[in-house]
Amino acid sequence: MKYSSIITKLFFAAALVFAVTFSASAQKFGHLNSAELMSELPSIKSADSELQTYQQQLAKIGEDLVTDFQKNYQDYQAKVNTGTLSQIQAQEIEASLQQEQQSIQVYQQEVQRKVTEKRKELYDPIFDKVRNVIEQYGKDNGYTMIFDSGLGAILFESSEDLTEAVRAKL
Known about the structure:
- It is a single chain.
- By secondary structure, the chain is mainly α.
- It has one domain: 2-Layer Sandwich (Protein Binding, DinI Protein, Chain A), CATH 3.30.910.
- It has five helices and three strands.
- The chain has a three-stranded parallel beta sheet with strand order 2-1-3, covered by helices on one side.
- Helix 3 (about 40-80) packs antiparallel against helix 4 (about 85-140).
- The two termini are about 65 Å apart.
- The relative contact order is 0.17.
- GO terms for molecular function: unfolded protein binding.
- This is Membrane protein.
- Belongs to the Skp family.
- InterPro entries: Chaperone_Skp, Skp_dom_sf.
- Keywords: Coiled coil, Signal.
């Protein structure tokens, strides 16, 4: 009785080792370069162009604010040099110039926030689409893992390059 219990346990252990070995050998790995894929997408090129135009529009407004500030400062300097300002007038103009300077700084921060939001708005749907295509391709073709060489991931020698296959799906 004791021997049959040991034999049964050994049999199950051997079966378990065989199952693990079989499943490990059945794993399928692939790799691709998502950065290369994305750089070729027309939607990325369109998003790049739209973001650049948006940044230029915001930069133009900022440049206009700085130009106005510089003009006001030069006018103030000219009045100080000619002595046509009273001390109270000079203080009022200085306060106004400080307010303009603060407004420029606030605008610069606002531009950074707006550009970040616009970038997210433009690129996130594209990234999601690419990720979904990769995931679906992996599921449809039985891949255990797909590595992204564009992110500097270490690749297995036995992995298959899926860049062209996913590119065809996009």
